[in-house]
Design goal:
The complex is a heterodimer of chains A (505) and B (478). Chain A has helices at residues 54-66, 163-180, 220-239, 285-294, 299-310, 314-320, 324-339, 351-355, 359-384, 396-407, 413-426, 430-437, 445-458, 460-467, 474-484, 491-504; strands at residues 4-15, 70-71, 74-75, 78-81, 91-94, 101-110, 113-126, 130-134, 139-143, 150-156, 192-202, 212-217, 248-252, 257-260, 273-274, 281-282. Chain A is α+β, with helices and mostly antiparallel strands. Chain A has 3 domains: 4-267, no CATH class; 297-437, no CATH class; 445-504, Arc Repressor Mutant, subunit A (Orthogonal Bundle), CATH 1.10.10.410. A 9-stranded mixed sheet of chain A has the order 2-6-7-10-1-11-12-13-14. Chain A has a 3-stranded antiparallel sheet with strand order 5-4-15, with no helix packed on it. In chain A, a hairpin with a 2-residue loop joins β6 and β7. In chain A, α10 packs antiparallel against α11 (413-426). The termini of chain A are far apart. Chain B has 478 residues and is an alpha/beta fold. Chain B has a domain at 3-244 and 394-473: Amidase signature (AS) domain (Amidase signature (AS) enzymes), CATH 3.90.1300. The chains are: A alpha+beta (505), B alpha/beta (478). At the A-B interface, loops of A face α8 of B.
């Protein structure tokens, strides 16, 4: 059936979130008033010279290391010459024959399967400005705020075979980059941009098909859709015996299709040559070592550690590591919970746990509970609030306390979820909320007996069914009792009372 | 005595003795400019006395003239080109900042070949500058305006820039002292680039002492220029001693070429005799790759220039046309017409040369090979400096030529820089000092070259020679 093979390579441009621009002292903040973030250097005014921002270089080296690349300690820049109004010098300072990184790879976790995607090269360069086409006054304006933003171009090998793989690669790449904390990685703001090269060949052909470049995708989903469209377009052409022309096509989000760029641009000769204003230099091994040392734990490493240290399923661990901060939140909780295994006195029900001094064992024991709370109720709350772990006010201690309160039976699972909601709304701790709202679980047998009396009266028919042996109906009676107490009753005790009254009485 | 005819160090002494002040000096200069510049045409504009100008009765306080390619905040800087008409820099070049901090004020901007492309100051959108020694002759170039202004006493001293001889050759043609410092000695920040790996700002002055004083002010590392070296700046005036005993000086055998004017040769040979009398030891040396210097230079310099000049596109500043007849797209039409009308013919020639040698398929044969030959030339010089303290050559093979004489023959014009180009390619310092006059009354220049960052030896030899002669005291009759 599958008679065609698709070959995809991606080119990602990543803006680095350094404090200042790559070759001048201007701020590097998104969304400033047009041209407010400029100086003679980034405006390319006559006589000005670039001076390399070392921090941008270090960020680039971090990326290179995270992508398992060979790092070039010889730092050299080149000029890429072309004319465009958003390029004030008439050339872009980039790296040509000595990219900072080459021959790397990224392990992409695609639904449990690990796939290795090669990284051809990654290099440092400066971003260009932005053209604003004002149709109202029929003119084009230039905003140079973005000019000189440090940019890392990451070029993959043509190792992807499906649009989904391209999507998986981008997701994995973005996650890795987010862990490095060197970029916002926000496609909407343009801090991460992606162009795709795609060709199609008959299955088994050794020679690659003619490559088409696609631009103008502004989300990972758009990249996938564009590749899916292009894949089919090219397959149809090959099947019809048509020749695919090497060209650049633009993705139209509106029409969900790619279109050849209107004017077929002449083949660019960028006339690369060494940038004479920046003297090449060699980064000392000591500095490279320091950068390597400062590298954080990366997503895959974290995944493996979570599985082994916390005994999590790879599914659960996989969800937690999708957000570095969520993963950190989980670890904080697990640590706190296991260290203060009795955060509330009511934990006495789990006496056996307290006696267990094996810390690792405890960790593994609590991790599942914490994970369930994070990827369950907490994630639901975050989703419904359209926020994330960074933007909400939730103290680690409060969250842990809440889980402990549920575990100890002080509140039911159901009430616990409500308490979490109140916690996020008010920023108060769980105990305060439970006390204020009288949500503590009722375990007073006398009070519960009274409630059971009422329920058995109200549902005499069901009660009879239970007496006649339909034990499954007990659940209904417990539920009704819970309802009456607004979830505060201890369901376990309720069940025991009902059983005793109907079966043993 | 006219103040404008004195040197900076003489004026400094008078200021110290409270016999004059900077306002009087400025007035005497402006008066001279008013009287003489209609003939010399050294200036493209003069500056009013700045509003915040304070008279500083210190060693500094001497006004200066600067080449039209060095940016002064809020003043027009045009590189002698129509394409930069109206461009006012929002910032000071580092050398300008340093001069301001030393209490130096600015008299005016001097004429130059457009973007420093030339050896005669004929390629300027403002028209040619005339040699004060013979108004029918060129002053040399590209810093011809600065050299002529100093020679004509329309300036006390001046700044120029030297990419292939643009300070030294006009200094030679105008009978003054011109220094190209070591590459990286003076910040290039604020110098509108011609060829970034060759350009260097330097002083044009009436004598060696003033050159040393001026270099003291402008030299030193600049965090705005990565190519500006972190090498300590000595007090160059300490090198102004009349003593060359035991110094070994090389004379490259390759410098006595066919095109060398016999009068220039005689003057240089006499200068060598003078230095010998002062105790210098001369030695024949060889620069085997010097014959490729001019060709190498025109590959490397034009390649860099073609890129450096890309920014003059009409988008942000300077000259822009609004083509009415659309040929391609409005943007490309604007680019093409702006650059067509904004650049002069020599600028276009060099942009085309440079674009060609950087083009895919030609890069290896031209630019890359040019860089390799450049290394060979540098190695030649390094080798000589292993056994010599300095090298002496003529500055230019001829004295000043007639205006218009070489306009139609760019290759002949390019040969005017045959002795000066190697110093730029190798990044070493070189100075031109007056060493005589030809029968036609035009000055002849002597070039001294030393190893990188050894301007001290350069000054010592130049000063010794100068103190043994009085060529520098001659004044043109205007």
């Amino acid at each position: 059936m599958n008679t065609f093979e698709t070959v995809i390579g991606l080119e990602v441009h990543l803006q680095l979130n350094t404090d200042t621009k790559i070759f001048c002292g201007c701020g590097n903040i998104f969304g400033q008033a047009p041209n407010a973030q400029t100086c003679p250097v980034c405006l390319g005014l006559p006589g000005t010279l670039p001076v390399l921002n070392k921090k941008a270089l270090f960020y680039a080296m971090k990326i290179a290391m995270a992508l398992n690349c060979q790092i070039s300690p010889y730092i050299k820049f080149d000029r890429k010459n072309y004319y465009y109004p958003d390029l004030p010098k008439g050339y872009q300072i980039s790296q040509y024959d000595f990219p900072i990184a080459k021959n790397g790879f990224l392990m992409v976790n695609a639904h449990g399967d690990l796939k290795k995607i090669g990284i051809t090269r990654a290099h440092l360069e400066e971003d260009a400005g932005k053209l604003i086409h004002d149709t109202a006054v029929n003119c084009s304006l230039v905003d140079y705020n973005r000019t000189g933003t440090p940019l890392m171009e990451i070029v993959s090998e043509p190792d992807m075979r499906t649009p989904q793989q391209a999507h998986d690669y981008l997701t994995a790449l973005k996650l890795t980059l987010q862990y490095l904390d060197i970029s916002d990685c926000d496609m909407e703001k343009g801090s991460l941009r992606c162009d795709a090269n795609v060709s199609v060949r008959k299955m088994g052909d050794a020679k690659l098909g003619t490559k088409v470049e696609i631009k103008n995708m502004n989300s990972f989903k758009a990249v996938k859709s564009a590749l899916e469209f292009e894949e089919i377009r090219q397959q149809k052409m090959i099947a019809a015996g048509e020749r695919i022309s090497q060209e650049t096509r633009l993705w139209s989000e509106e029409k969900q299709a790619t279109f050849a760029m209107r004017s077929k641009e002449e083949a660019h000769d960028y006339r690369y040559f060494p940038e004479p204003d920046l003297v090449p230099f060699i980064v000392e091994q000591k500095i490279i070592d320091e950068i390597a040392h400062s590298l954080p734990e990366l997503p895959l490493q974290k995944l493996e550690r979570f599985i082994s240290r916390y005994n999590l399923s790879s599914y659960d661990a996989g969800i937690l590591i999708q957000d570095k901060h969520l993963a950190e939140f989980f670890e904080g909780c697990a640590q706190l919970y296991s260290e203060n295994i009795t955060p509330v006195s009511s934990i006495k029900n789990n006496k056996e746990n307290r006696d267990n001094t094996d810390h690792t064992h405890i960790l593994k024991g609590v991790s599942k509970k914490i994970t369930n709370w994070i990827i369950g109720p907490l994630q639901q709350e975050l989703n419904s609030r359209k926020s994330d772990i960074n933007t909400i006010e939730l103290k680690l201690e409060d969250f842990v306390k809440l889980i402990a309160l549920v575990e100890s039976g002080s509140v039911s699972n159901l009430v616990g979820k409500d308490v979490l909601k109140f916690m996020l709304d008010s920023g108060k701790g769980p105990e305060a909320i439970i006390a204020e709202q009288g949500l503590a679980q009722v375990s007073d047998t006398g009070a519960l007996e009274k409630i059971v009396d009422e329920i058995l009266n109200e549902h005499a028919q069901i009660a009879n069914q239970v007496k006649e042996g339909k034990e499954s109906a007990i659940g209904f009676l417990v539920g009704q009792s819970m309802r009456k107490t607004h979830g505060k009753a201890n369901p376990k005790l309720l069940g025991e009372i009902i059983k005793r009254r109907l079966l043993n009485g | 005595m006219n103040l404008n005819e004195l040197t900076a160090h003489e004026l400094r002494d008078l200021i110290k003795a409270q016999k004059t002040n900077t306002t009087d000096i400025r007035d005497s200069l402006l008066d001279k400019i008013k009287r003489a510049d209609s003939k010399v045409k050294a200036y493209v504009r003069t500056f009013d006395t700045p509003k915040d100008f304070k008279e500083i009765d210190t060693a500094a306080g001497i006004p200066i003239s600067i080449k039209d390619n060095i940016c002064i905040k809020d003043q027009e800087t045009t590189c002698g080109s129509k394409i930069l008409k109206g461009f006012k820099s929002p910032y000071d070049a580092t050398v300008v900042k340093k001069l301001k901090q030393s209490g130096v004020s600015f008299i005016g901007a001097t004429n130059m070949d457009e973007f420093a492309f030339g050896s005669s100051t004929e390629n300027s959108c403002y028209g040619p500058t005339h040699n004060p020694w013979n108004l029918d002759c060129v002053p040399g170039g590209s810093s011809g305006g600065s050299a002529a202004a100093v020679a004509a006493h329309e300036a006390i001293w001046a700044l120029g820039s030297d990419t292939g001889g643009s300070i030294r050759q006009p200094a030679s043609f105008c009978g003054i002292v011109g220094l190209k410092p070591t590459y990286g000695r003076v910040s290039r920040f604020g110098l509108i680039a011609f060829a970034s790996s060759l350009d260097q700002i330097g002083p044009l002055a009436k004598d060696v002492t003033d050159s040393a004083i001026l270099l003291n002010i402008i030299a030193g590392h600049d965090e705005n220029d990565s190519t500006c070296a972190e090498v300590k700046v000595p007090d160059y005036t300490k090198s102004l001693v009349k003593d060359v005993k035991g110094l070994k000086i090389g004379i490259p055998k390759e410098c006595f070429i066919d095109g060398l004017d016999p009068e220039v040769k005689t003057a240089v040979m006499e200068a060598i005799e003078t230095l010998k009398e002062q105790g210098a030891i001369f030695k024949k040396v060889s620069l085997p790759h010097a014959q490729y210097a001019v060709a190498t230079y025109y590959i490397v310099a034009t390649a860099e220039a073609s890129s450096n000049l890309a920014r003059f596109d009409g988008v942000q500043y300077g000259f822009r046309t609004h083509p009415e007849q659309s040929r391609r797209t409005p943007l490309i039409d604007m680019y093409e017409e702006t650059r067509d009308k904004g650049f002069g013919s020599e600028a276009k020639r060099r942009i085309m040369l440079g674009t060609y040698s950087l083009s895919s398929g030609y890069y290896d044969a031209y630019y890359l090979r040019g860089q390799k030959v450049r290394t060979l030339i540098k190695n030649d010089l390094d080798k000589i400096f292993e056994e010599c303290h300095a090298i002496i050559t003529p500055t230019s093979p001829t004295t000043a030529f007639k205006i218009g004489e070489k306009v139609e023959d760019p290759l002949a014009m390019y040969l005017s820089d045959i002795y000066t180009i190697p110093a730029n390619l190798a990044g070493v310092p070189a100075i031109s000092i007056p060493c005589g006059f030809a029968k036609n009354g035009l000055p002849i220049g002597l070039q001294i070259t030393t190893k990188p960052f050894d301007e001290e030896t350069l000054f010592r030899i130049a000063y010794t020679y100068e103190q043994s002669t009085d060529w520098h005291k001659q004044k043109p009759k205007l």
